[in-house]
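Holo prediction — NAP.
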Amino acid sequence: MTDLKGQIAIVTGASGGLGARFAEVLGRHGATVALAARRHDRLEALATTLTQEDIRCASFSFDAEDPAAAERLIDDVTQRLGQPTLLINNAGISLPGRAHESSLDDYERTMAVNLRAPWRLSQLCASRWIAAKSGGAIVNVASMLAERVGPGVSLYCMSKAALAHMTACHAVEWARHGIRVNAICPGYVRTEINDEFWDTNRGRAELNRLPRRRVGAPQDLDSALLFLCDPASGFVNGASITVDDAQSWVL
Ligand SMILES: NC(=O)c1ccc[n+]([C@@H]2O[C@H](COP(=O)([O-])OP(=O)(O)OC[C@H]3O[C@@H](n4cnc5c(N)ncnc54)[C@H](OP(=O)(O)O)[C@@H]3O)[C@@H](O)[C@H]2O)c1
């Protein structure tokens, strides 16, 4: 079993969906967890549940659209829980729209949350890990749409492709410092990001095209997350692992 005792993990977007599940799973395997997102009430509710399971955790208000938020988050986590050793860049948004109709604001918000914040958090963690000679691990949550494309979500696809490429760039630069950087590229998993879509006509048609005519649940990503965070996976670096029940092959 993956042993994450002594690890301190930051999970962005821990107020729901995949992030809440990632926080639970890391905590249940021994990690201390820093829960970061905007909806503080939800983080507090999750923190209460995790604390009842004897998982050490704390919640942190974090708005990825604020360029200064990343530095504040790393400083606050270090002060309240200790130096982070794992970073899960999970927070993400999708602002659907036809490519010729998306606004400048859509572009800037998508890139700020899906790319700039993970980049800045990664950079801040890596510089501390390099100075401390401690090593560390980063998992970026990209998407199967980092490699494939779908209509109506061009900004999302662009941001996730860049995130997957950033994963490899950072792995190459930081490998010599004992820092591993990998990505999970999930297929469709039912969460708030897409919940309403599956009950529309287009959603039902899309579901019927999928190999198992079903989308995933957040727990379907547990094993990939643990594999990438496990200190035993020391040779796994710069990888983008698709976990999608073969969905991307039929997109
Ligand atoms: N579900 C899927 O099918 C799927 C597939 C592939 C990839 N993904 C990726 O998986 C990740 C998690 O998605 P999900 O399905 O769990 O979506 P979700 O249920 O909509 O959760 C998104 C999370 O991101 C956080 N977030 C959004 N904007 C933020 C901001 N400005 N600052 C800080 N946090 C922010 C939200 O927290 P607050 O609103 O509280 O800030 C929330 O916790 C995303 O990166 C998504 O692109 C999901």
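READOUT: Residues 4 and 30 are 5 Å apart (CA to CA).
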